[in-house]
Amino acid sequence: MARHPNAGKRQRSSPFVVNIARLGRRPGSMLSLREQRCSVASIGLDLMAIPADAEVDLDLRIESVSEGVLVTGSVSAPTAGECARCLRPIAGDIDITLTELFAYPDSATDATTDDDEIGRVVDDSVDLEQAIVDAIGLALPLSPLCDPDCAGLCPDCGVVLAEAEPGHHHDKIDPRWAKLAELAGPPANDDGDR
What we know:
Blueprint: E1 17-19, E2 30-38, E3 43-44, E4 48-50, E5 55-65, E6 68-82, E7 89-103, H1 108-112, E8 119-120, E9 125-127, H2 129-139, H3 178-184
Parallel strand pairs: 7-8
Antiparallel strand pairs: 1-9, 2-5, 3-4, 4-6, 5-6, 6-7
């Protein structure tokens, strides 16, 4: 699972901190949040991620429940990376569904779960960053491809095979037969001469 570089640290500068003071603690209270936030750091995997400074669309429902705050909805953003076979740049979009519970301080859920198991409500706010990072990491492909039939790179010269001339290949002599090829001399001409 993808971990954010600041996992485990409480960062107030996170772009995904949502103030829930207006929500209150009465179960059933609800807020809707529809806005764009700017990702400070790249979110994702090595070959594919939401780039730093990309606009991340949040369409969330924030609801007070007996033990904390339940956040549900969708998160979408552009992605960029490179093909795992030919290393050409690729771009796309990702849309994930988010369902995350944040425990109230001093609730039974807060007392019975570890810090890394569930998020917490801190100073009338919830930080969605780690939940988004985890969901994005699970949704992105480990080996993204520019095309399902991508042929990749030539193992001998490194040219992108999709852009190479038809029949691209390299003649190779098995090293065990190389000495024999030297003894045989140059190949025969078309007319049969040596």
